[in-house]
Write a sequence for this structure.
């Protein structure tokens, strides 16, 4: 037993020390779930950053840019361990994490170590409300998305009644809570029901039948893609008349693949993505680099986070956290998810637009800020 | 939607979900009845069945058989999935459970848990982490009775599930092998003395149980439209609850247990706050076991058997 | 003998091929033979190695094989060294560890110690009393949430909240213990599993109290008061246990106290009575052992230790979320207990480190890590069903059994 213990310790020591490497290497850590049910999105994030490093090419002042993938496993304890590991390896910037419930505990050691943290996925409002100087967020917050949804329901759909479904996870519960808040404030839409499902379930007919009887004008699916695609299929089989609207966690190629014909006519909120040569170039490079047929939405944010970091370091001429933070905050950066400009809290002014599924494709439909069709 | 229609519709939903739970629960109950082991890997066998069904069905669809020979396609898909998973089940028993037959219960349970993690991660590595879409075979067409709609796919699946259960019941009660199985479940030592080949009986259990699970897997894929490497977990918990509720080791118990668990889940969500449906299912289970410690159809004290 | 082994090897290889080949190789679109064969090759290598080892051992003679197995040899050698030295050495290594290690390793060390504490607690229920518990993580959650809520809502300090958390955990331990008193064996598995899920779902659904899936954030770290001279007089100074090394020492002390407590319990009348319940409940009851009371006590004490670990976890992370307490976590703690050897304290410690630290080292391997984890768990159980370091009582029993078998062979 003693021998085993010694061997374990030696291996641990080696594993710990191998992080040290030659100077003049810029180290970017990623923090995303590489194992478990969200591994797909987590891998997208890792690959997005790696793509950015490759596309950016040589960074002046550094011999090499290295990406160290950390596995947050969508779990608080594992995320802090992974964060501490990245800190030890001497990363200057961390792109991550994915689940808000992993980002929140991982913030503490990273902020203490003065490491710039850019989340490509976590949208819980609380993350940017703690006054952390080095924390930035690429996607719009939950309340921005909820606001867009409510605007669409009120102004475009002119819905009078709404039913909410969510799966009681941090992200989805945050969205439905915000929708309830905005709808109550405007007092134009009556929320007739708020139903819950279990993540991982396959059968939602009980809840859907319940809503079919209430027959609300619109039904909001606050779920992730796996549940969303199954839910819409079952809703169509039950001949439900209500309009279905959902959010960006459902905006995924798999929703079209699994949903098929049933997905037609579903509205979704998703960040506005202006079509640009850079975006197309990214898509081409990414697909080639990773032999991928489709690109998950978080890869775009991760790519932007990576590109912006590298550009900011180039501009600042250093990876010193204070100067880098200042450079990032004071400038406006180009990005494939729109222009990147952070406010004092580290949030972007990024709006969602409404998309619709048409002929098995996501098509831009309506802009909640201008109130115009797209 | 009228109230009758609503209630009827919810009953249809409950019946459908319940039959799938029942089919999976049978695998648990049979294995438990014979070797008194909670086969934690059963959920993964179910998922493996769904994947094999998907592979075969995609292949057959690409040659256009789904439209031209529907019945034959279904027979091939189900047969292939069930056959493969049956082999997998036997292999599992051989590798992970047989060496532990005389060891402590905990060791066997842990071995089963280990195999469950192994298979689930194996499927994740081979089939990917995200959903895989099943070819759409059944559309939204169906029969509407008094406002309640039952789709053709649901009818097909429920009928198939019932047929499988009837076949199992006949097998267990009408054949020599079935008799041997029942005898082994009652008293293994005595059965061996009477000349029953215990190894063979156990192997047959590990053919039938997983095969039924695989059939359920294909059904889930066909009806819900997508399968994923970790979908076995939730079905496993519910089916396990169903098997225990009905009295583990009892085949009719597992069927009725499945219907009860499916029914409670659907009807609670239909009439009461849906957030608490799983809490209710588990609470009901605990209450039933408190008042009837060996389940509804359990055969008294299981533990006394050596 | 050799022919038999070769036959066995062939059978196992074919079975493994069936088991693994399609699982790893097939995809609906393409067939990745290379990967499948790599994994298959690995397994066949393990089988061949096992085969060679068996042949070598059989050459050395049968009775030698029967007398001392590797595990026994190790434990016998271990037993020769005076216990106080080994213990002292281990504690010393554990105590200097933070001075040598970096933050990440300390963090892994903390996690290991949390799981060791949990394993020791569950060891009472599973190892000593023989009650299968698949929902143990619920008590960990209860400890964590009790501290989080008391601290956030009422500003209660860690040390004041700790007993409350323990009491809460013990109370719930009795609540789950009570209905299961009549049940035996595997029915317990589903009831405890259901109970674990109920607790997690209640934490997730009761938004008003627990903030639901948002989780609770911002709990204070534990503080210590110590007298010191400043401002020209004797004052109580506050030291906040905030850094990772400080937290490491705290959980080390918690784990050691748990260890001492459980050792004392193990050797007491209660410990022996628990083992009696485990071995034969009816006989124990007839011998005048109050089985009902003892089972409840086992649940309550096990839950209490888990609650301590939970409160520490909440304080360390400053964040709790119902998602942290899923069924898989209960399984991992159970694995620690059974893999280490049911009822064996050193076994739990070793298994805790192996199950938590080793996968952490291999995190780079990502998904293959869990694949191997599952396979190793099954293989370990097949090879050593009594765990890595079987409890002393079990060892004695095994030796007796072997003696009996030897006698009857003659």
């Amino acid at each position: 037993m003693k021998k085993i213990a010694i061997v374990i310790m030696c291996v641990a020591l080696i594993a710990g020390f191998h992080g040290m490497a030659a100077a003049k290497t810029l180290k970017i850590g990623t923090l995303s779930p590489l194992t478990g049910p969200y591994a797909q999105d987590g891998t997208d994030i890792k690959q997005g950053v790696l793509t950015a490093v490759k596309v950016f090419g040589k960074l002046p002042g550094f011999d090499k840019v290295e990406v160290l993938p950390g596995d947050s496993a969508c779990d608080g304890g594992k995320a802090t361990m992974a964060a501490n590991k990245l800190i030890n390896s001497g990363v200057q910037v961390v792109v991550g994490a994915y689940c808000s419930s992993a980002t929140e505990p991982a913030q503490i050691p990273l902020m203490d170590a003065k490491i710039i943290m850019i989340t490509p996925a976590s949208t819980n409002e609380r993350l940017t409300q703690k006054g952390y100087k080095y924390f930035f967020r690429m996607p719009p917050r939950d309340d921005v998305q909820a606001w867009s949804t409510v605007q669409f329901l009120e102004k475009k759909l002119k819905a009078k009644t709404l039913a909410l479904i969510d799966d009681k996870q941090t992200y989805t519960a945050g969205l439905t809570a915000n929708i309830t808040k905005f709808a109550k404030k405007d007092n134009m839409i009556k929320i007739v029901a708020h139903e819950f499902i279990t993540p991982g379930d396959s059968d939602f007919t009980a809840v859907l039948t319940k809503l079919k009887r209430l027959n609300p004008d619109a039904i909001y699916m606050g779920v992730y893609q796996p549940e969303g695609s199954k839910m819409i299929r079952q809703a169509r089989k039950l001949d439900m008349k209500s309009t279905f609207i959902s959010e960006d966690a459902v905006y995924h190629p798999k929703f079209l693949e699994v949903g098929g014909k049933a997905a037609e006519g579903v509205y979704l909120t998703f960040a506005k993505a202006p079509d640009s040569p850079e975006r197309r170039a990214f898509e081409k490079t990414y697909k080639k680099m990773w032999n991928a047929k489709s690109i998950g939405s978080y890869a775009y944010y991760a790519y932007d986070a990576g590109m912006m970091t590298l550009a900011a370091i180039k501009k600042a001429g250093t990876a010193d956290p204070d100067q880098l933070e200042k450079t990032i905050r004071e400038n406006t950066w180009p990005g494939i998810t729109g222009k990147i400009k952070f406010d004092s809290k580290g949030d972007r002014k990024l709006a969602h637009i409404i998309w619709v599924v048409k002929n098995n494709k996501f098509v831009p439909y309506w802009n909640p800020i201008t109130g115009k069709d797209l | 939607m009228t109230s009758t229609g609503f209630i009827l519709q919810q009953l249809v939903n409950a019946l459908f979900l319940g039959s799938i739970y029942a089919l999976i629960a049978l695998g648990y109950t049979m294995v438990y009845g014979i070797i008194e082991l909670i086969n934690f890997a059963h959920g993964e066998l179910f998922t493996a069945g769904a994947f094999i069904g998907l592979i075969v069905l995609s292949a057959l669809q690409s040659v256009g058989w789904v439209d031209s020979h529907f019945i034959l396609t279904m027979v091939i898909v189900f047969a292939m999935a069930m056959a493969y998973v049956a082999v997998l089940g036997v292999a599992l028993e051989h590798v992970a459970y047989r060496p532990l037959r005389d060891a402590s219960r905990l060791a066997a349970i842990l071995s089963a848990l280990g195999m469950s993690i192994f298979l689930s991660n194996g499927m994740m590595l081979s089939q990917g982490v995200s959903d895989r879409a099943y070819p759409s075979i059944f559309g939204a067409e169906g029969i509407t009775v008094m406002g309640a709609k039952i789709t053709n796919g649901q009818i097909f699946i429920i009928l198939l599930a019932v047929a499988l259960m009837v076949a199992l019941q006949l097998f267990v009660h009408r054949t020599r092998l079935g008799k041997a199985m029942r005898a082994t479940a009652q008293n293994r030592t005595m059965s061996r003395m009477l000349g029953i080949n215990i190894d063979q009986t156990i192997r047959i259990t590990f053919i039938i149980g997983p095969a039924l699970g695989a059939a359920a897997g294909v059904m889930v894929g066909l009806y819900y439209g997508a399968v994923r490497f970790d979908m076995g977990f939730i079905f496993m918990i519910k089916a396990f609850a169903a098997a225990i509720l009905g009295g583990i080791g009892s085949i009719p118990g597992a069927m009725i247990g499945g219907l009860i668990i499916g029914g409670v889940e659907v009807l609670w969500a239909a009439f009461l706050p849906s957030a608490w449906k799983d809490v209710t299912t588990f609470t009901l289970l605990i209450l039933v076991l408190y008042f009837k410690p060996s389940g509804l159809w359990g055969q008294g004290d299981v533990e006394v058997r050596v | 003998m050799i022919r038999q082994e070769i036959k066995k090897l062939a059978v196992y290889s074919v079975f493994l091929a069936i088991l693994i080949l399609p699982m790893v190789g097939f995809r609906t679109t393409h067939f990745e033979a290379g990967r499948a064969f790599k994994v298959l090759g690995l397994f066949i290598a393990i089988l061949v190695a096992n085969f060679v080892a068996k042949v070598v051992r059989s050459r050395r003679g049968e009775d030698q094989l029967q007398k001392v197995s590797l595990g026994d040899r190790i434990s016998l050698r271990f037993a020769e060294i005076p216990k106080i030295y080994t213990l002292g050495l281990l504690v010393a290594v554990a105590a200097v560890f933070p001075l040598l290690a970096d933050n990440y390793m300390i963090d892994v060390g903390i996690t290991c110690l949390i799981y060791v504490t949990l394993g020791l607690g569950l060891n009472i229920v599973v190892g000593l009393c023989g009650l299968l518990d698949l929902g143990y993580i619920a008590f960990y959650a209860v400890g964590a949430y009790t501290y989080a809520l008391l601290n956030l809502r009422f500003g209660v300090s860690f040390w004041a909240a700790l007993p409350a958390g323990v009491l809460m955990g013990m109370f719930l331990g009795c609540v789950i213990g009570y209905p299961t008193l009549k049940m035996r064996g595997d029915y317990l598995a589903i009831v405890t599993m259901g109970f674990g899920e109920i607790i997690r779902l209640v934490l997730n659904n009761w938004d008003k109290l627990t903030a639901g899936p948002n989780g609770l954030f911002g709990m204070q770290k534990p503080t210590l008061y110590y007298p010191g001279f400043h401002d020209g007089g004797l004052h109580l100074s506050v030291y906040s246990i905030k850094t990772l090394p400080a937290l490491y020492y705290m959980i080390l002390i918690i784990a050691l106290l748990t260890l001492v407590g459980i050792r004392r319990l193990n050797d007491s009348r209660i410990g022996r009575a628990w083992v009696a319940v485990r071995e034969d409940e009816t006989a124990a009851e007839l011998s005048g052992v109050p089985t009902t009371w003892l089972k409840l006590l086992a649940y309550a004490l096990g839950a209490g230790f888990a609650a301590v670990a939970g409160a520490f976890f909440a304080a360390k992370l400053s964040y709790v979320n119902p998602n942290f307490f899923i069924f898989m976590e209960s399984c991992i703690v159970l694995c620690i207990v059974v893999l280490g050897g049911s009822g064996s304290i050193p076994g739990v410690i070793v298994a805790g480190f192996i199950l938590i630290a080793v996968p952490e080292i291999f995190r780079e391997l990502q998904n293959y890590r869990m694949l191997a984890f599952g396979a190793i768990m099954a293989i370990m159980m097949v090879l050593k069903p009594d765990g890595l370091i079987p409890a002393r009582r079990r060892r004695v029993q095994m030796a007796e059994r072997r003696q009996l078998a030897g006698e009857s062979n003659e």
